[in-house]
Protein 1
Amino acid sequence: MLMLSGIQHIMFCPRQWALIHIEQQWADNRLTIEGDLLHRNVDNPAYRQKNGDTITLRSVHIASHTLGLYGISDAVELLPSDTSDDAITHPKYPGFWKPYPVEYKRGHRKPDERDEVQLCAQAICLEEMYKVHIPEAALFYHETRHREVVEIDDHLRQLTYQLSEEMHKIFDSGYTPRAVENKGCRNCSLIDVCAPELTRKTSVAYYLKRMLDEETA
């Protein structure tokens, strides 16, 4: 079982994921610290919020043996349901409830689906644990103070399974992928550990071969 939160890392950069989850490397920058402060306020397992008919549970432990992932959901909202179809029960709240995962993010919407796959993985965990179907969930972006509804469709589910398989494949190999330098590198807290600029350098083997060829020519 691997950490669910890593699925966003591997979509952003497989090397970043391997540095964190295989080599156990970590470094903070302004972005990671701001994210930690946000989740410190959100992830309080003892805090339950009731807003109208909606109940919000914090820091819900989740896992999926199909994905091979485990983690903690920022929040799972319980929406009232008239029937037991795709609904769960809760010992403290009578009736039937539809689970609705909500993930909190520090910044704003990303250019790719790294936030969406993390949310989808949480939905799949809840589905597997409680034998329900979750058609949608939500991302809340702290910077814009905006909640975005995410449809947990076939495309997103397939992408989530592909990324979880890639995580396990790299983990089993124990091999950290080479750096692929791009514009996202400058915001990565591991840029000094990763040293992506080295990919621009000539390899030692190529340098020696070239020098030897020039000397014998």
Protein 2
Amino acid sequence: MLKKEDKIYVAGHRGLVGSAIVRNLQAKGYRNLVMRTHGELDLTDQAAVRSFFEQERPDAVVLAAAKVGGINANNTTPAEFAYENMQIQCNVIESSHRFHVKKLLFLGSTCIYPRMAPQPIPEDALLTGPLEETNEAYAIAKIAGLEMCKFYKRQYGDDFISCMPTNLYGPHDNYELSGSHVMPAMIRKFHEAKVSGAPSVELWGTGTPLREFLYVDDMADACVFLLENYDGEQHVNIGTGKEVTIRQLAETVKEAVGYEGEIVWNPDMPDGTPRKLTNVDKLHGLGWTHKVELQEGVRLAYEWFRENADHARM
């Protein structure tokens, strides 16, 4: 059981996920947080990671650091996604074991599931079919990470748990168009079109795929809930259990931004997985449900982007 005075290392604290987890931990009274930027600690460097753990001796670890990106980035640099993510995971998980970390939470992604997984996707759909090719490298790395947590628990009794958040969005997201996910890309495109007075915005694909979106502060609340209440071997899905088409999402973002032009869909660009909805029965059964619905979340995300455009990841 975590104590408020426990030293908690949040890896990836400046990203979308890590920064939200830090906010949630602090709001719940956890003050002894340890953080390092990439410049201060390269998590792909095994010796540096071991030295950090030996010096700091954290009681708990949240592994939210990863090389992430959208379809284009995953498609064009798969070797980098596989290699860097597996390095980060192996180094942090092994050092957590070596230096007797009491609790570790590993964050994966729902892209770990087969392309044609049953919908909504239950946790036991893992490794039951082929992956989506456009993010296969990232998915394989994340599968390796959650399986490592399971193996360390089995062999050594380490309290290492995993969760699989659905598509996330919110403060500190990546708005760089060549590497961003669908939500921040839409927010930036509609905002810039509104500012420039452009008559239309082009979006990738057909708009027909179904996706689930979770506001990142809800995700963080679920993660801290799991740190405090869960010690099972199986990973836990984190999501809303609700889905929209990409076309519906575009209309929601367009409305939040206040853009009045036309949306032009480019069917020559990839759609990705046709449908991806998580089964969140396990998480609901543990006692947690989301609070922020999509329309409110998009409005909050756009407000943050507009107020922080000068130093957002662009």
